[in-house]
Predict the 3D structure of the following.
Amino acid sequence: MDFSNSQVVIDALPNYRRVDFIPLPPRFLRLRLGVLFSVYAVLALAIGGAFTIALNFDGSPFQALLLRPQSVLFLLLAVVLMLLLALFVYAATKAIHFAVRDHDIIVKSGVFWKQEVVQPLKRVQHVEVTRGPLDKRFRLANVVLFSAGTNLSTFRIPGLDQDNAEGIRQFVLDYQMGSQDQAIQRDSNTEVSSGTREAASPDSRGGKESPADRGDSMAIGGGQSAATAPSDAATIEPPSE
């Protein structure tokens, strides 16, 4: 077979932008923001309690420390950073989209650094659907794919609707079963074709006639000559006197 290495025309490549990406359900965004603001509430209670204790003890070193202008400025800076973090979590969650195609799954994410990951289904070793306590409360689930040759998860779709996650998992399993059936069918067809070629060949040594076959032919030919000899002799007439 001749080897060829032709150049690929870049403009003729498939356009990946034609893929219709699906956003995550809004419940996942509410879950993330709810967890974040719960942490903020705990921090606010701790800081507020520290200020209350410091104000009730006049002349304590903690009161002088917390009422310094630097401490107030640090507190305002911490509030601004927490708000920026909440905005980043909002934008990062809204940036997650996914798409399921016949032979692969695509996930794109990222706010400042965009990332698109394509997981071929042929490389998937097994698939899992994970759910935490909060995921169960919001009817969410995560799909985790493991590629062949590694025990670590290489692909993850977070915050999916529970029914969609189970559907993706079943789709991947059906794809794996279909690939196995095709491989088994391909192997059986190969065995049948090789058996047909062996049956069509008279000899495994290139189709040459074996000495035994030549001996049988000679024996058959000799028998025919012996059988026809008396018939020829009967046709000879004796000379007349």
Notes: The first strand starts at residue 22 and ends at 23. The helical segments are 26-56, 61-66, 69-94, 133-137, 162-200, 211-234. The two ends are 82 Å apart (CA to CA). Confidence is low (pLDDT under 50) at residues 214-241.
